[in-house]
Amino acid sequence: MRLFDLRLIIAFLFGLYGVVLVVIGFGFTTDEDLKKAEGVNINLWAGIAMVVLSAVFAVWAMLRPQFADTDKQPLKEL
């Protein structure tokens, strides 16, 4: 697994933002916020979805790593 695989960077960012939204959804949502959103805690649900998506990207990067094929010869000039 490569450290700079784009899927891992995306997973990290989605996970970070997702955790922030889950914390805001649990701890800092007021009744006024819920009233604006018709009773749905949007921050909580969006955060959970982002954390799940982050886990999917991370598992995908671990199960299907991308490696360059170094055994092939480079293309010849014309």
Please characterize this protein's 3D structure.
The structure is a single chain. This protein has 78 residues and is mainly alpha-helical. It has 3 helices and no strands. The protein has helices at 6-27, 31-36, 42-63. The longest helix is centred in the first third of the chain and has 22 residues, at 6-27. The two termini are 35 Å apart.
Short recap of the structure:
This protein has three helices and no strands. The chain has 78 residues and is mainly α.
Helix and strand arrangement:
Layout: H1 6-27, H2 31-36, H3 42-63
Helix pairs in contact: 1-3
Give structural attributes.
78 residues, 3 helices
Span between termini: 35 Å
* Major β-sheet profile: none
Task: Report the average pLDDT across residues.
Answer: 90
The best one-word shape is rod-shaped
Strand content: under 5%
Tally the beta strands: 0
Order of helices and strands: HHH
Provide the gyration radius in Å: 20 Å
Helix fraction bin: 55-70%
Number of helices: 3
Quaternary assembly: single chain
What structural class results from the helix and strand content? mainly alpha
Stretches where pLDDT is under 50 for at least 5 consecutive residues are none
